[in-house]
Amino acid sequence: MTTIFTKIIDREIPADIVFEDDQVLAFKDINPQAPHHVLIIPKKPIATINDIQAEDEVLVGKLFTTAAKLAKEWNISEDGYRVVMNCNEYGGQTVYHIHLHMLAGKPMGWPPYSGAPKQSA
Question: What does DSSP say about strands 100-104 and 36-42: parallel, antiparallel, or unpaired?
């Protein structure tokens, strides 16, 4: 199935790409929910989390290591960031090609950030 993400990978439609290698592409979300909001996608089309196979484990892990790499490059890793992957309609998925949302640049904790010092476990 062709999705908007497939068209971005194939350069059929433009995107503000911030990272790319042979397996992963990351680009700015067109409707950002935070100062830093990028989508990190595998170039291999996988429709939903439910469709991830054992042979995809390394590839899916690479989505997370890409998020960590970008956070470090953008000097936001210490303040923190959120990564989210939605699955199917009730989970909020709108494009059926798995993608990791990486959001940062403002407090996003719940309950709302209080400025309290971090506690150790």
Answer: antiparallel
Tokens (6 digits) for 14: 């433009």
Closest CA to 39 of 76, 86, 107: 86
Out of 37, 97, 99, 101, the active site residue is: 99
Specify whether the CB–CB gap between 98 and 23 falls below 8 A: no
Coil, helix or strand for 61? helix
**Does 109 map to a domain?**
no
Is residue 50 assigned to a domain?
yes
Contact assessment for residue 105 and residue 35, using Cβ atoms and an 8 Å cutoff: yes
Number of domains in the chain: 1
Residue 75, domain member (yes or no):
yes
Q: What is the CATH number of the domain that holds 84?
A: 3.30.428.10
pLDDT block averages, 10 residues each, the chain of length 121: 94 97 97 94 97 98 98 94 95 96 85 54 54
Annotation marks residue 99 as catalytic: yes
Residue 72 lies in domain: 4-104
Angle at 101 between CA 84 and CA 83, to 5 degrees: 45
